[in-house]
Request: fold
Amino acid sequence: MSDTALTTRTLTSEHRTRRRIVNWVMEGLATVAALAAVALLVIVVGSVAKRGAGALDVDFFTKTPSFLGGFGDQRSGIANAIVGTFLIVGLAVLMALPVGVLAAIYLNEFAPKRVSSAMTVAFDVLNGVPAIVIGIFVFVFIVAGHGQAGIKGAFALAILMLPLVTRSTQEVLALVPDAMREASLALGAPRWRTTLNVVLPMAVGGIITGATLATARVAGETAPLLFTTSLAANTVSWNPTEPLASIPMFIFTSAEQADPSLQEQAWGAALVLITFVLIASIVARTFGLRSRRRLTGGR
Amino acid sequence: MATVARSIPDPAALRRRGRLNAGDALLYGITLAAALSALVLLILIAREIVADAWPAMKEFGFGFLTSRTWEPTADVYGAATFLFGTALTSFAALLLAAPISIAIALFLTELAPRWLRGPVGALVEMLASVPSVVLGLWGILVMGPWIVDHVGPFLHRMLGWTPFFKTEPAAGPSILSAILILTIMMVPIISSICRELFLNVPRDLKEGALALGATRWELVRGVIFPYARAGIAAAMILGLGRAVGEAIAVTQVIGNNEAITWNLFDPGDTLASRIASLYQGATTKLQVSSLVYLAVILLAFSLVVNLLARVIVHRVGQRHANA
Reply:
């Protein structure tokens, strides 16, 4: 009964028109949503570029902030924050990259499948821990009672980086064809030589891609630095055992100031940061796509 | 080639082949230690944070979760206003971000011409790489004034009868700003997971539906959504986890105000944002401990969220494997 009713209804042209209109509306909405997201990126990057460009001059990169200089009569810069971010992020990479790659080697080359997937959960869970919680952890673990230091901020960033590096390395290692491993073993090379001389060289492009993306991602993080390396002096310091300034912290504190020249500097710093992050991710993605294509033989 | 040739072993070594030699054992040990680092860190994080939150946990117990007072002068602390703020901002942002993200994913997998999919997908994901402190800066100085001047008055006129937009928007930070910023952060996360899900819908199912005369929307509603339902739920949970844990951008735009209010034009506060705002303001031991207590809540929540999302994905994976 109901079947025939449905069929008759389906066949009316009125119904068909309605279906077509619903479809048309939904397709339109999906397109608008995608365009809106792209437009938003353009708006955000555009307004950072527009407001920040004015702050960028030689002084901005070579001088340090002069909060005492009064309103705008003296040009100042963020040299200390640039050096600080360079040191903190560099140290974080030094800590996270070897551990992350070695962990991925174990998970992909040595561990039985079940062990590997169980241990991977730990990396995923660590990846889900909010950055501010990592910051608090480093604070209570090594900062409270001992004082802040750039290297402690780097440790916090390294914890954030670790799961990113491990997961991306795992993905690349999985792409290395088993035939290569078998060929090497068949020639009599032990497992460790196979891993270091055959598997890793094939995967190195992808590993660098993943590491670059992870670096770009943590370079902009502020939350892990708040409690670990925020109370820095306004001078350039290359000593990671004392608190170091950083670009994200500079943006964070300057944004709250009423002084318009400081706000302009915050935009300038944001422009520097966003340029670094976007260029790093674009380069890594293009490069990564190429090396992945080579690994999978064009598929 | 030469390296391989040199490593061809003598017959005695050949007999041991198949078992771990010294080099293998060494690499195995080092990599195993590295692989255990995540687990060790998780345990260490949990232990250290709970240990430092312990004074506050002992003092306030679970009443911490329901008490609204955060009074440094009296050294009495409670998290209720921040829990409320976190729930309000995160769920509202999810409500906005979920349909937008699903729509974007559909555009990228079903609608867009093939040459457009790569670039648009990359641009949407690039939105995720904008540092949160930059997004927060943009939120205070660009989006905030725009809300006050344009969006706010409109919302107040149209929806002023709801509790959410009761007053005229006031200049400065607001819960609404935080919701919009969180939405911007969630969209790239949820849409990129959904895109993967939609790509994995078997082709014969899609073609079957189209062959039966379904429109594209009917294909989406009748085939793609049912197939990807659990995955979409997991994506939304992961997005929610991201929003709940976001500290910097939220603390920049929300105003750090201790009030339980449904009026989105008012300033408010969240768990993560309260921790961030007090990075140099915590004075007493108990206040620091209470801040760490807030971090314990965030940590516990993030663990639940991630494991839950995993369980959902795993169960679905098994169902598809059996089918």
Residues 1-9, 11-15 of chain B have pLDDT under 50 and may be disordered.
